[in-house]
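Objective 1b. Sequence-to-structure analysis of alcohol dehydrogenase.
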Amino acid sequence: MSTSRSSQIITCKAAVIWGSGEPLKVEEIQIEPPKSTEVRVRMLYASVCHTDVLRARRKGDPVPLFPRVLGHEGVGMVESFGDEVNGLEEGDYVIPTMLAECEACENCTSANTNLCLTYPLSRSGLMLDGTSRMSIKGQKLYHMFTCSTWSEYMVIDFNYVNKIDPSIPLPHASVLSCGFSTGFGAAWKEAQVKMGSSVAVLGLGAVGLGVTEGARMLGAAKIIGVDKNNMKKDKGLAFGMTDFMNPDECSDKSISQMIKDLTGGVGVDYCFECVGSESLINQAIQATKEGKGKTIVIGGGISSVKIDYFPLLSGRTLKGSIFGGLKVKSDLPILMEKCKNKEFDLDELLTHEVTLQDIEKTFELLKQPDCVKVLIKI
């Protein structure tokens, strides 16, 4: 039962994809009212994450759920909500999160993980009860994780929603709902970068730039950015990078050797793989210091990886990360406060903007060398 004045099915526009590699089609869909623990959100902005692109463009998707409305970064306004929803009112600004934090389970009370056992990461593309609130011509539509932000409206369980301060610029709130926060969290929560340490970041997209900013704020003395796109150099410098290297410009050396050359031959304390490449994961491990180096894997899109054994045997650590290890109730508000206080400049990320109607242009824009993040104005 909805506590809101709005308890009707809403017909709205959304970007629907019918299969891997097929084009996005902006079509009319139906959004049902929220059930007891759910919130219906009128989306205002969304943004594009690499994971969305993988789901849309790559054949052999490990979770091929179609038809589907993609998008898991965004910001919107509460339109209606169920009678068991606490702490939210109509008109509140909220962002979706792929993870939840019940604050009571074994994982939530541990400092070692951000993966809640009570409200786990959703891979089914459905609500917690195994059904969908979205349909098109009577056919069920799947989510991207817990939500679908590439739509004028969406329904999400309130445990996967964060209320935000309305003074935060809405485009900034959108990118904090996943990409930049994932990178920042990886430096802060996963690696726990130490003052005066050395860091290498492989891939200077939104996630990699989040790592760079996090490492800077934590006091890293050397932050090496690695990207094949020279236009990312200025972006890296804006977020605290101290050194930049393009591996294509030094083809006679491996990336790990180039990083060691910049660190007196010993490698870095921490290396972050933000691309999703088997070869880069091994290079990242080898780029860290023997005995103590930490490699954090953030990039998606790999189904299996063959790891070189000896570098790990030499005392290095390899760790995977989702959402940068951030707990959505405990940690994400801290990033929001930093954003509100203008401690980092997220305008540097937002290089392109499209309307929902022109969302198919997004995939071409992402190929442009000056593109970091595409904002979708809903």
